[in-house]
Amino acid sequence: MNPEDPRLRPLLVVDGANVVGSVPDGWWRDRRGAAERLRDRLTATGGPADGPYPGPYEIVLVVEGRARGVASVPGVRVEEAPGSGDDLIVALVRAANGRPCLVVTADRELRERVREEGARCVGPRALPPAPA
Predict the structure, then answer these.
(1) Fewest 10 Å CB contacts: which of 9, 41, 63, 77?
(2) Who contacts 110 (Cβ-Cβ below 8 Å, separation ≥6)?
């Protein structure tokens, strides 16, 4: 396999609603726009610089509710949760089948659920800010 194949990289799953909601910047007025800004930030930064796994990551941004409709871009795949974003995140971790997996969320219950599936977790502050 090609080492550039995303399936060979650690999987980074980002809880979009939780990360967007961690900064009171008016995201509630335009949830989709806030999710797009997060997607673009992930594209530019590639995920946590000091994560437990060396990058690059295969990055998946999970969106739900009024943040749906955000398109995937090269470097970030966007997955729309048909129901609970947390349930989709757990399913993505489970589908990783033992591949190194890092979840970005501050949600305590979700952290416990994905740890049970073998993932590691970091909080939203682990993501670097968007380049100026």
Answers:
(1) 77
(2) 15, 18, 86, 89, 90, 103
